[in-house]
Amino acid sequence: MLTELLAGTRWHTIEVVDATGSTNADLVERSAGEDVGGTVRITTDQTAGRGRHARVWSAPRGSQLAMSAAVKVGDHTEHLGWLSLIAGLAAVQAVDDVVGVRPGLKWPNDVLIEDRKVAGILSEYTRSPSGGIAVIGIGINTAMTEDQLPVPTATSLQIVTGKPVSASDLAAAFLRALSDLLALWPDDVARLAEIYRERSDTVGRRVRLTLPGDQEVVGLVTGVDSAGRIVIDADGREVVAAAGDVTHLRAIGD
């Protein structure tokens, strides 16, 4: 069914498995000996998922949709940072299309509903016999109940909507949106930056950005640049960062 729904996209091999440790790790490991570009691996039982900064992203069986998609990137390593941002954009579009709820997107790729995280994204770069490969992974909380949430700041689509969500429909919508957005990468990152600025909940807000090494910057986000980096006006000083944790701050008077 998914293969039919994804006809005409860049995904030519769709693997749906009952359970695995990590869909990302599966494709990264296989890339050492085979060309996995265009392959997607999907499960609703991921037992050893990973997030940014080596954070663990786990969920009870059947409560989360985990997917990883392998993309041939060749020598285009200068714009790899965009791939996680593209995945965030695709997730927002997919949830809106399937569930009818439009999530917020906090830089770089946190997908939020009512300020609670509903999806986690991790992109990894590796090498295959045919060249560079990026593995884009996402875990979307589909059917978690309140008592199954890993942290109070998380949520699930079932909690938000009060009804079950089709994992197949959600996977197809995400992978179609991802394929469409990847058509702009890496040749039209200016257009990607424009799309991201239009859909981001972070651009135009005051934030606290915690940089590696625990340095903090507070200021107004004026945009993202063509490299996908956040641009902040910190009391007249421009700060540009490729990595860090963002906290949205309330405006004075809110």
Automatic annotation (TrEMBL):
GO cellular component: cytoplasm
Gene3D superfamilies cross-referenced by the UniProt entry: 2.30.30.100, Bira Bifunctional Protein, Domain 2
An example Gene Ontology molecular-function term: biotin--[biotin carboxyl-carrier protein] ligase activity
Enzyme class, UniProt record, top EC level: ligase
Record key words, sorted: Biotin, Ligase
Domain BPL/LPL catalytic: 8-186
Documented EC number(s): 6.3.4.15
Coiled-coil region list: none
Matches recorded under PANTHER family: BIOTIN PROTEIN LIGASE (PTHR12835), BIOTIN--PROTEIN LIGASE (PTHR12835:SF5)
Name of the protein: biotin--[biotin carboxyl-carrier protein] ligase
Originating species: Gordonia insulae
Gene behind the chain: birA_2
